[in-house]
Specification:
The complex is a heterodimer of chains A (about 300) and B (about 240). Chain A is α+β, with helices and mostly antiparallel strands and about 300 residues long. Chain A has two domains: about 150 residues, no CATH class; about 130 residues, Cyclophilin-like (Cyclophilin). Chain A is built from four helices and 20 strands. A seven-stranded mixed beta barrel of chain A has the order 12-19-16-17-14-13-20. A six-stranded antiparallel sheet of chain A has the order 7-6-9-4-1-11, with no helix packed on it. A five-stranded antiparallel sheet of chain A has the order 2-3-10-5-8. The longest helix of chain A has 14 residues. By secondary structure, chain B is α+β, with helices and mostly antiparallel strands. Chain B folds into two domains: about 80 residues, Gyrase A, domain 2 (2-Layer Sandwich); about 140 residues, Cyclophilin-like (Cyclophilin), CATH 2.40.100.10. Helices cover about 20% and strands about 30% of the residues of chain B. A seven-stranded mixed sheet of chain B has the order 5-13-6-7-10-9-12. In chain B, strands 1-2-4-3 form a four-stranded antiparallel sheet, covered by helices on one side. A two-stranded antiparallel ribbon of chain B has the order 8-11. In chain B, strand 3 and strand 4 form a beta hairpin. Classes of the chains: A alpha+beta (about 300), B alpha+beta (about 240). At the A-B interface, strand 15, strand 18, strand 19 and helix 4 of A face strand 1, strand 3 and strand 4 of B.
C-alpha cells in the first residue's frame, strides 16, 4: 500500500493517540501525545476525532517521502518544516503530492510537532491503544513500541473532512514574551511541605531542565523541603509534581511509572502538561494554583472546541 | 481498616487511603475496595490503581465533577467487608537459582554465612502476597520476605536485567517481566512469562494473589523454555527508570 516513506527518522518520532487507558493497574503506563491539545487540533483540521492516531515529532530530523498525494495537518511546535524546501508553518492543513518531501529540521518554537492523517494513521492497537511506549515495547506501527525508523511506511485508510481553519490563539505554545503559567491542582502531600517551600513553589520562576523526556520534566529552582514521613508507593496521576530528596520537582508526564513513593505538591492540569511538553530546556515557567473545578471547566471548554 | 480518607491529587484523580503501613492482612480489604470502586464508578472510571495502602481513582470528568466522584467513593466504601482470602489466585513459580543468572545469590549467602542452598530454601519457604503492580507491565511487588534475606537495593543499578529475573530488595521480592533496567538483587531466573498481550488479563499476577517459588534444575529451566544467558555485569550509569 502506498503512503509516506520515512527517509530519515530523526531522534524521536512516535505514533501516538490519546493514550492507553484501563490497564494502569497492571503497571502499564498511560502514554499518548504529550501535547494532546496539538494532536487534537491536527485531527480537527482533517475532521477526525481529536485523539485519532498521528505522529509526534520531537525536536525534528524527520524526512518523509510521499508515494501518493494526501491531505494532512500539521500542528504544535515549529520545527522548521518544509514541503520540498518551501516553509510549512504549523497550524495548517496542506496537500502533499506524490514525489514531494516533507522535512523537519530543528525547533524554532516548541519541541513537539503533530502530524495527522485522513481518518488516522494505520497502526494496530495494543491493549486498546496505538500509543508507542518504547520502554514497555507496546504500540506503534508494529505493536512493539518502536520509534519510527528509516524505511517505515505511514499509511491511512480514511478520507478528509471539509476544509477547516484553526481559530486564532488556540495553541499550547506561548506567545512572544508571554509568561508560561502552569496550572496546578494542589493536593496530595502539599500540607507536609514547609510553609516557605509552598510559598516559593508558586511565587518563584522555575527553569525547565535538560533532563526532560516523555516520563517527566525536571524543574530547577529553590530547594523545596518536605517535612513529612517516608511514603508507601501510591498511584500517580498525569502531571504529578513530585519532589525527591534533592528538593527539585519533577513533573510526571505521559510515560511515567504508574506508582511511586515521592511526596507531591499536587498535579498540573492536563492542559498545563501539554504546554510544558512544548517547553524547551531553560524556559522559565511559573506554577499557579487552580481549583479542581476551574481546571475541569477549562478542560471541558477545550474538549468542546472539537465537537 | 482505618477510616478511609479521600484525597484530591489532581484535576481528575482521587487517592483513597485505607491504611498507613504495608501488611498482608490488608490485602482482603484492598481487594474489596477495588471491587466496590469499580462497581460504583462503572463507565465513569478511566483507571483504578491499587498500591499497598491506597487506590488511585482516575475518573472521567465528562461524566463526574469532583463532588460527585467523592460521593461515589464514600458510597462504595460504606459497609465494606474484606474479601474472603480465597479470592486471589495461587501461583507456583519455578526458578533456576544460580549465580550465573542471579549473581547476588553469592552476596546474600556470604553476608548470612550460609550456603546458596540455604538462601534458596528460605526464599522458597513461604507464600508471598502480591501488594501492588507497577514499575513495568506485570511487575509485582511481593512480600514479606524472611527478615534475614532483606537486602538493600544495589548502589549502582544494572542497565539491563533479563526477563524472568527473580529479585530481592529490602523485605520484598519480585520478578522482572521483561528486559529492563533495575536495582534489585538478582538471585535466579524463571522460565515463566509474566506479561503478554495475548494472555487473558495480560498479567499473570494480580494484587492479592499468593506466590510461592520452587527451585528447579538448569535442565528443567531450559526444558521449560528458559534462556540461560548469564546476567550482564552491573551497569555504570544509573538510569531514570529503575526500581
Amino acid at each position: 500500500m502506498k503512503g509516506l516513506i520515512v527517509e530519515r527518522a530523526g531522534p524521536l518520532a512516535l505514533v501516538q493517540d490519546g493514550g492507553r487507558f484501563g490497564v494502569r493497574h497492571l503497571g502499564v503506563t498511560q502514554g499518548g501525545a504529550a501535547d494532546w491539545v496539538s494532536l487534537g487540533w491536527a485531527n480537527w483540521l482533517l475532521g477526525n476525532a481529536p485523539q485519532t492516531p498521528g505522529v509526534e515529532i520531537t525536536v525534528g530530523g524527520l524526512v518523509l517521502y510521499a508515494e501518493t498525494s494526501a491531505t494532512l495537518a500539521l500542528t504544535g511546535a515549529d520545527l522548521g518544516a518544509t514541503l520540498d524546501d518551501a516553509p510549512l508553518p504549523p497550524g495548517t492543513r496542506f496537500t502533499i503530492s506524490a514525489g514531494q518531501r516533507l522535512a523537519f529540521e530543528s525547533p524554532r518554537t516548541g519541541l513537539r510537532a503533530y502530524l495527522a492523517f485522513p481518518g488516522g494513521l494505520d497502526a494496530m492497537p495494543v491493549l486498546g491503544s496505538v500509543a508507542s511506549t518504547v520502554r514497555e515495547s507496546l504500540g506503534g506501527l508494529d505493536g512493539q513500541g518502536r520509534v519510527l525508523d528509516e524505511g517505515d511506511c505511514l499509511t491511512w485508510a480514511g478520507t478528509t473532512g471539509a476544509e477547516r481553519t484553526l481559530p486564532s490563539s488556540m495553541g499550547t505554545l506561548p506567545g512572544d514574551g508571554e509568561r508560561v503559567m502552569l496550572a496546578l491542582v494542589s493536593g496530595a502531600q502539599i500540607a507536609d511541605f514547609s510553609g516557605t517551600s509552598v510559598f516559593e513553589a508558586f511565587n518563584t520562576p522555575w527553569q525547565v531542565d535538560q533532563r526532560a523526556d516523555r516520563m517527566g520534566v525536571r524543574l530547577t529552582g529553590p530547594e523545596l523541603r518536605y517535612l513529612g514521613e517516608g511514603m508507601v508507593s501510591e498511584g500517580i496521576p498525569l502531571g504529578a509534581v513530585q519532589v525527591p530528596a534533592d528538593g527539585q520537582p519533577i513533573v510526571l508526564l505521559n510515560d511515567r511509572q504508574t506508582i511511586g513513593g515521592y511526596p507531591r505538591l499536587g498535579a498540573l492540569t492536563p492542559l498545563a502538561c501539554a504546554r510544558l511538553a512544548q517547553c524547551q530546556p531553560d524556559t522559565e515557567v511559573w506554577l499557579t494554583p487552580v481549583a479542581a473545578r476551574q481546571a475541569r471547566d477549562a478542560h471541558l471548554r477545550q474538549l468542546a472546541c472539537w465537537r | 481498616m482505618n477510616d478511609p480518607s479521600i484525597e484530591t491529587v489532581g484535576m481528575d484523580s482521587l487517592i483513597v487511603r485505607l491504611f498507613d503501613s504495608i501488611d498482608e492482612e490488608h490485602m482482603p480489604w484492598m481487594l474489596a475496595a477495588d471491587h466496590a470502586l469499580r462497581e460504583a464508578f462503572g463507565e465513569a472510571l478511566i483507571d483504578l490503581v491499587p498500591s499497598y495502602t491506597t487506590l488511585l481513582v482516575h475518573y472521567d470528568i465528562q461524566r463526574l465533577d469532583l463532588q460527585a466522584a467523592r460521593a461515589r467513593v464514600s458510597e462504595a466504601l460504606k459497609g465494606l467487608t474484606p474479601a474472603t482470602s480465597g479470592e486471589g489466585q495461587r501461583h507456583v513459580i519455578p526458578v533456576w537459582y544460580d549465580v550465573s543468572v542471579g549473581p547476588e545469590l553469592e552476596r546474600i549467602a556470604e553476608r548470612l554465612g550460609v550456603s546458596h542452598e540455604d538462601v534458596i530454601a528460605r526464599h522458597c519457604a513461604r507464600d508471598y502476597s502480591v501488594f501492588a503492580l507497577g514499575f513495568a507491565p506485570g511487575y509485582a511487588f511481593m512480600g514479606r520476605l524472611d527478615d534475614e534475606l532483606a537486602t538493600p537495593r544495589l548502589k549502582t543499578p544494572r542497565q539491563q536485567v533479563a526477563a524472568g529475573s527473580v529479585a530481592i530488595a529490602e523485605r520484598q521480592t519480585a520478578v522482572y517481566p521483561t528486559l529492563s533496567p533495575g536495582g534489585w538483587n538478582i538471585i535466579g531466573r524463571t522460565p515463566v512469562a509474566l506479561f503478554g498481550r495475548d494472555r487473558e488479563g495480560y498479567s499473570l499476577f494480580r494484587p492479592g494473589d499468593k506466590v510461592r517459588f520452587e527451585a528447579i534444575s538448569r535442565e528443567a529451566f531450559i526444558e521449560q523454555g528458559g534462556d540461560s544467558t548469564p546476567l550482564a555485569e552491573r551497569g555504570d550509569t544509573p538510569t531514570e527508570a529503575q526500581t
